[in-house]
Specification:
DUF4367 domain-containing protein; disordered N terminus; alpha+beta; 7-stranded antiparallel beta sheet; 150 residues
Length: 150
């Protein structure tokens, strides 16, 4: 009798485990690859950035503990940087993780909204369902030049 109960328990555990595995399948399918970077946060301010420019763009570059902050505040600088930023696309996922370079790009809008992007090296660092994913960025060179990053 104990063997039958154990067998039923083991079968139920397998069924439960199988259903959990199938629930995680959408996570594998959900990818940022191919999207424009400005679309990722789902922010209306980012989508309307060509119409309503941010009042400031800030780039924080932390390399081996040395923090450099670049701020763009002039409308001409911001317009040029926004035009370049709107061309950045999300590339493929990568497993290249840089341990000594953590950067943040922040957009400050007139309505006091701030939208920030976390970078690891020059890859997007994105939190998805509690896990960190890294994505290559495509067409980003012009933006890096505008904010004086080489």
């Amino acid at each position: 009798m104990a063997r039958i109960i154990f067998f039923i328990f083991a079968v139920m555990c397998c069924i439960t485990t199988g259903s959990k595995a199938s629930q995680s399948l959408p996570e594998e399918k959900s990818t940022l690859t191919g999207a424009y970077l400005y679309e990722v946060p789902g922010s209306s301010q980012m989508k309307d950035m060509q119409k309503v420019l941010p009042s400031e763009i800030e780039f924080r570059k932390d390399t081996e503990g040395l923090l450099t902050v670049t701020k763009l505040t002039s409308p001409d600088e911001i317009r040029t940087a926004v035009d370049a930023f709107l061309q950045i696309r999300i590339g493929d996922r990568t497993d290249i993780f840089v341990t000594d370079q953590y950067d943040v790009i922040s957009f400050f809008f007139p309505d006091n909204t701030t939208v920030s992007f976390q970078l690891n090296g020059k890859s997007l660092e994105w939190r998805n369902q509690g896990k960190t994913e890294l994505y290559d960025l495509e067409n980003a060179e012009l933006f890096w030049e505008e904010v004086s990053i080489r």
